[in-house]
Amino acid sequence: MAVKDSIKLSRREEHILKLVAQAKCRKTIAEELKMSIHTVDTHLRHIHLKTQTHSLPELIVWDMKNFR
Known about the structure:
CATH class: Mainly Alpha
CATH architecture: Orthogonal Bundle
Shape: globular
Number of domains: 1
Largest sheet: none
CATH superfamily: Winged helix-like DNA-binding domain superfamily/Winged helix DNA-binding domain
């Protein structure tokens, strides 16, 4: 089973992860997705929990290894 199949990110979480991987800041992501920065932070917290990462650089490396 591939990692992508075992970790269930929502579509919104996948979209936010993609934007983070494009080096977009939280404020830009919030504006682009028309949501508050607090909502972006909540999604990022859930992504970190699901992927067992603790920082954005670590999350980007995880994304490159498992999704791209």
